[in-house]
Task: structure prediction
Amino acid sequence: MISRVNQQDLPDEMRVVITGIGMTAPIGNSLAEVREGLLSGRSGVRPYEIRYFGKTLAGVCEFEVNRHQSKKDARRGTRAGSVGIYCANEAILDSGIDFANFDKSTVGVYVGVTEHGNVETENEVYQIKGYDYDTSFWSHHHNPRTVANNPAGEVALNLGITGPHYTIGAACAAGNAGMIQGLQMLRLGECDLAIAGGVSESIHTFGIFAGFASQGALASHSDPAKASRPFDKARNGIVVAEGGCLYTLERLSDAKRRQAKIYGEIVGYAINTDATDFVLPNAERQAQCMQLALKRANLSPEQIDIVSTHATGTTNGDSLECDAVRRVFGQSEKTFINNAKSFIGHSMGAAGAIELAGNLPAFSDRVVHATINVDDLDPECDIPGLVRNQPREVNRVDYILNNSFGMLGINSALIVKRF
Result:
C-alpha cells in the first residue's frame, strides 16, 4: 500500500530540489532561449533529409558540440553522448556548484533514453558496404558506442565522475524516469548530487522515420512549422526531434547550505504500465499514473496549476490522453493544459525533461505557454483549461504536473512545486 506523505513534513535531507538546468532543443540551447521560443510561438521544426528515407521534417538542435568536449572525443563517441555532455556541463554551470572541488565519487548520473545504438549501427553498416561488407573494417569504437550505458557513461568520463552512472531505458517516458531515479538515489543516500534527465539522438537514424511511417504515424505538412499539431483535428502524426535536458538535483539541506537558487521542488511522481498493447495507450492506466503522483504528493487535482501533456500529435494518442486528463481533473478550469511538442516535435527520451523545463519559469512569471497549431480543435481533445495558440497569464502557478508516456505501455508523471 502506498501511503500519503506530506512533503512539508519531510526533513530537508529527504526533500529534493532542482538547482541547475542544461538543455538543447530545436528552439534553443538554454532555458532562457527555449522559454522565449515557447512564449513567442516560434517553431523549431524544419525540412530534413536522411539516408535511405529521404526528405521529411524534424526538430534539429544546433548546439556547440565542442564547447565542453574535444573533437577527438566527439568523433569516437555518439551524438547522444555529445548531447548529454553539453547538457550536463551547462546544468552544473547553471547550478553554481563548485564542481572542481566537489567529491566526484558522490555524484550520480541518471540519463533517460528511448533507444540507443541504432545511429551508430546504421552508420557502420553503411560504411562497410563500401568494403563489400568486410567486417575487418568494422569500427573498433562500436561496442562502447552502442552499450546501453553509453550516454550516461560519456557524461561521467567527460566530467571525471566516479560515482554511479547508468541510462534508464523508459521509451518516451525516459526524461521523467531519469529525474525520478535521481530523486530516489538522493533519498537513499547513494549520491549527494544527481545529474538527471533525458537525451535523444533519434533524428540521426533513418529507422525511426521509416518505422513511424510504416505505422502511419509520421507527420507531414506543406509548412514545417505547422506539422506538429497535437489536439488539432488535422493532426497526422509525430515530428521526430532530437534534444536533451539534464538537471542538477540536490537535497534541500545541501542546496540551502550553499544558498543555491532553486527552480522547484519535486514533490510527487509515479511510473506504471498499461500492460495492454505495444503502442496503443491506455487512458485508464494514464489516469491512474497521475492519480498516484497526486497521492504521493498529498495533493488534490484542483491544486495543480499546469498539466504539461505528452500528446505527440497522433490521432489515438492525443484523444486517449485527453480522456485520461478528464478522468483526473474533470471539468475544472483551474488547471491549465499545454504542450511543447507543438513547437519542437517529439524528442523521445528527452521529451519529458525538456517539456518540464519549459514550464518551470511559470512559477515566477505566471505565464502558461500555449499549444500552437491548434487551428481546428478536435472535439475529443476539448478539455477545459487548454491553452491554445497564445500564452495565458494566470493568477498563480504553484504546482506543475508533467506527463510523459511511451511504447510498451510505460507511463510517468512528475509533480514539481514552486519553492
Q: What stands out?
A: Residues 79-95 form the longest helix (17 residues).
